[in-house]
Design brief:
By secondary structure, the chain is an alpha/beta fold. It has four helices and ten strands. The strands form two sheets. The protein has an eight-stranded mixed β-sheet, with helices on both faces. It has a two-stranded parallel sheet with strand order 4-8. The radius of gyration is 16 Å and the shape is globular.
Length: 209
Amino acid sequence: MKNSIALSLCLVSVLGWGQAVKADETAPPAQVPVDVGQLARAAVSERDSRGLPFAIVDKKRARVFVYGADGYLRGASPILLGLARGDASVPGIGERRMSEIRPEERTTPAGRFDSEPGVNLQGEDIVWLDYDAAVSMHRVRTGNKVERRLERLASTNVAEHRISYGCINVPASFYDTHVKPLFGHARGVIYVLPETRAARDYFKFLPRE
């Protein structure tokens, strides 16, 4: 039951910086936001990432930044997120039917998640953030043309990137090049920056301002 619901939700839905990749998928060093860079450095220096690869999801800018275990930036990409603003999943949402989920409940939760690789019911590999809440990171799906997901990914309007039920959608090429090699075969850490509260409310290892 949980796997079926989780699949449905997803379907609708400091060391230095690494080398650049495709321009439409990677932010050069100068474009790494200050709060993202600060979190990345603290995750490594305070050993919160435990020597694992990690990713930082920036909901305010609708981007993800992927880091190797060494703290080097491997790549960055635009993403699609939950339709509604908010930093918590509704309790029990992973057990509910999609038709029962209201638009304001379609949030991507903030926080620190121990990710693990998974496979959905169609045999597609995904990366789980929160299995109980049915939140994962996966390749963007374009079956519903009305949702214009590829166009939304390319848009510079952050509001256009809010469409999913909470899952994090990334371009297929970025997933295969950066997400799958680092998170698709073993555990990692995914940090999702909040959009309604202070980052330190979720990440106590951040330095005090």
